[in-house]
Amino acid sequence: MTESSTPTGLSVYQFAGLQPGPKLIILGAVHGNETCGTKALQRLNREIDSGEVIINKGTLTILPITNPLAHKLQRRHGDRNLNRNMSRTNDPQDFEDRVCNVLCPLLEQHDVLLDLHSFQAPGIPFALIGASNNSGELEPIARAEQEEAMAMSLGVNRFVEGWLDTYAQGVQDRKARGVEARVDYGVGTTETMRRGGGIAVTLECGQHDDETAPETAYKAIRNTLAYLEMTPEGKPLQTHQPEVIRLYRVIDRLHPDDAFIKKWLSFEKIEQGTLIAHRHDGTELISDRDGWIVFPNNNAQVNQEWFYLATESSRLD
What we know:
Elements (H helix, E strand, L loop, with lengths): L12 E4 L2 E9 L8 H15 L6 E7 L4 H6 L21 H14 L3 E8 L6 E3 L15 H8 L6 E4 L1 H14 L12 H7 L3 E9 L5 H15 L15 E10 L6 E2 L7 E3 L4 E4 L5 E3 L4 E4 L10 E8 L5
Parallel strand pairs: 2-3, 2-4, 4-7, 5-6, 6-8
Antiparallel strand pairs: 1-3, 5-7, 8-14, 9-11, 10-13, 11-12, 13-14
Helix pairs in contact: 1-7
């Protein structure tokens, strides 16, 4: 792509109610090939402009296309993954660095974030939530109950926790192999929002090409607005029987010839002792407990996340 065709800005839309209320920001296409949020937010934008949807409290900010370069290229990233290593820099090296220099201040101006994504393999929608309340250094949070309540109002039944501490353990594993790695590389939109004192939920709305994913995203947006009382609608019903899954281990690919024994689906159930993959030297990778395989990536690069293991969580019971 030539320099002249590289996007030079972000389209940001803001709507202010005349009564005080939360400051909500909603993102679509943080990954450029994940367009369900884009379609849902463009629909919402039209409906607000026409008066079909009324924002009467607080401030709503939407970015239908958060990474315009990746979106233009119709792929996950432009120069790099925008949803990793999210921070401001005085010396931007790539397109995503420049986006972060705009996006991070925007996030700091808001109280609540809803980030809309989709995933590669077939599966059902799910929400990623942060840690329980804690004062630790990795992911301190004091508003977990509010985040959980918002997530339970989105209209999905599956919830996943444990992202950042699992990623941190993966970083330690890499360092033990002599590979340079930083925990902050695991920090994306939601972690940035929580570090600023806000609440944040990522909603994975379905498979990239699932025709129902934009509707799932739209329903979640409307439910979030109603839950926060930013629109006149009554509060949405919360999920009463949530399925909560905790990530506990990430496995990196160590060699191009590392191979799965089959084409795994994300959130496919596995039992303790299940053979998952072989290293290039024949070493077997076997599940150490009952649970799920999550985010298996057949195209993973060496020393990058290959798959995650997860187990059942008692949170939200």
